[in-house]
Amino acid sequence: MSYLRPLHLAAEIGGPPRYDPAHYTGLARLAERGTLDFVTLGDSFARPGPDALAVLSRVAPDTRRIGLVPTVTTTHTEPFHVSSAVATLDWVSGGRAGWGVDVSTTAAEARLFGRRPAASAAALWQEAGEAADAGARLWDSWEDDAEIRDAASGRFLDRDKLHRTDFEGAAFSIRGPAVVPRPPQGRPVTVVDGTADPARETAARHADVVLVRATTPERTAGIRDDLHRRAVAHGRDPGSLRLLAALTVDLGDAESAPEPGLASGPPLAGHGTYYRGGPVDLADLITQWHRTGAVDGFHLTPITPGRDLERIVNGTVALLQHRSLFRTFYPGGTLREHLGLARPANRYAPQGARV
Question: Are residues 234 and 206 in contact, defined by beta-carbon separation less than 8 angstroms?
Answer without folding.
Answer: no
